[in-house]
Predict the 3D structure of the following.
Amino acid sequence: MTVAAAKPHLSREHMLDMLRQMIRIRRFEDKCAELYTQEKIRGFMHLYDGEEAVAVGVIAALEKRDRIVATYREHGQALVRGVPMTSVMAEMYGKQEGCSRGRGGSMHLFNAAANFYGGNAIVGGGLPLAVGLGLASHMQGDDLVNACFFGDGAVAEGEFHESLNLAALWQLPVLFVCENNLYGMGTALAISESETDIHRKAECYRITSEIVDGMDVVAVEAAARRAVQAVRDTRKPYFLECRTYRLRAHSMFDPQLYRDKAEVDSWRPREPIARFQGWLEANHMIHPDEVSRLTGEIDAEIEAAVAFAEAGTWEPVEQLSRFVYADSVVPTGQ
Amino acid sequence: MQQELPGTDPIELTYREAVRAALRDALARDKRVFLMGEDVGRYGGCYAVSHGLLAEFGPERIRDTPLSESGFTGAGIGAAMAGMRPIVELMTVNFSLLALDQILNSAATVRHMSGNQFGVPLVIRMATGAGRQLAAQHSHSLEGWYAHIPGIKVLAPATLEDARGMLWTALQEPDPVLIFENVMLYNISGKLPRDAGAVSIDKAVVRRWGSDVSLITYGGSLWKTLEAATALAAEGIEAEVVDLRSLRPLDDVTIMASVGKTRHAVVVDEGWRSGSLAAEIGMRIIEQAFWSLDAPIGRVCSEEVPIPYPRHLENAALPQAPKIVTAAKAALGRA
Ligand SMILES: Cc1ncc(C[n+]2csc(CCOP(=O)(O)OP(=O)(O)O)c2C)c(N)n1
Ligand SMILES: [Mg+2]
């Protein structure tokens, strides 16, 4: 990789695309929240409102061939990575046209074609798996970056520490991306961790680590480009702590008793979309009309995705036990 | 214990050596295969199974891990999903509990939950069972728990032939396979053909033919059951001994064929009785062969206590040949 590749692309076209991706996640999820109240979407659903810059910035720095492991709060990652919105929405509905055949729902978006190794609903559960992808890269001698998203809550799990140690010990090409939104459900970081400076934990494992303002998409992308290039070149792990904030409830069942409205409001001005859009406008890189146009296009895409999901079909009950084990159909992921 | 197997040019070896031969063979045949676990390399394996393999295959493929059961089991899952064929050794079933999350929530779910986009062709080996006076925390037999989980296969090689042959077949599976090696079997020895190789992993096998009662068992209990069958024969009772070999899936056909013939069944299982694999087998017999039974089904399981340290108490807690003899006679209505 060239040095230039490690720098963020500041072209107007790229900036617009970053803005578009963030708005696309936000509006998709706004729609999902609406569909949830209509009971079209059921189960647990976790929204990414306020955190969009993390997925957009990090994934912009990855190549299509790189692999991604995510959590149950992964709609953003899936959309940015290129899992078609139609198939994500159908998955939210539980329809068999969904990206996991409808079997996973919101928390388990998978897409082999996009090297998207799933949303994992066990906090910390994806970290060892990402280490294994890194181990495969190491043993197969490829140049892939294996990116793993997880929250600040996962940092308290043993699997986090086991995984960081293994990745550093065996020198595996894993990019750890901590989405530090200051809460694990209703438990604030400060009452969960003796050391709240998460990136320092990575340093203890001799992993290069960096903190970045996770509400600033340009900063995230710049940091992610450094990180991705480091992993690709050195074949060693790298740790990126993205400091961010979740503006909505943890899930659709959360009355948010653990934080004040004032605290949430204090974060709103830092919200990544308005902030980036304001910055682009102030620097005459974008016109408000363009944002309206973008938004219109996105809304059309969302409408089509909803129509696709509505028209989708339920997997026949006769297929309930299909793919507990492999059958004659060769899995596309291998 | 001695085991005689037919075949030309047989060689004498132990169960431990048979597992090692299987590992060596797999590592030599398939570049994607590697062994990973605690003390598998420099130490030579906690039961000396992988002794010598490090020198032969190097530290990349005979990979010593830190004490991170969940971490390296998950790493095995990820590596399998990305095209490798890892063999994860979890020392013993006792420690596998620290990896249960990865086995149950990742390995067993991924294919179904991803709509068949990803699979986990992973083999996990571990020792199981009591009998070495290791006390409560090191004497569990939890293979029956694992046999509860859809999405994985569970094997219990009891013979040299299976110790040598099941691994390769398991490695050809597109889904996770757990192999349980009973600790009391590592030192048994016998003869195997020099060219012994892969065996099927989906069929139970009748290890001793008989017409009076079916003794259904697996793993370390197979040998105690065969011993009991010999004792029963001296009293004129011909017991048929069924070695399950695969605990998930269970080979119902072989079980029911035997019970259909003998009309009496006793299940021998080193797991605890309540909620056990023995309970599952008993219920399947009720569901599928109720009308061919002449008497209630018997069970010989471990006593429902943490396995104690002193020899006499440990022996008393585990299935033993005399208990099996008694249960078989009870099933036949002969006190
Ligand atoms: C092992 C485990 N423990 C508990 C839970 C319940 N749970 C779901 S999300 C969550 C909070 C996780 O917080 P964090 O990792 O910071 O991610 P965030 O939701 O903030 O994105 C908890 C406790 C779980 N899913 N898995
Ligand atoms: Mg959090």
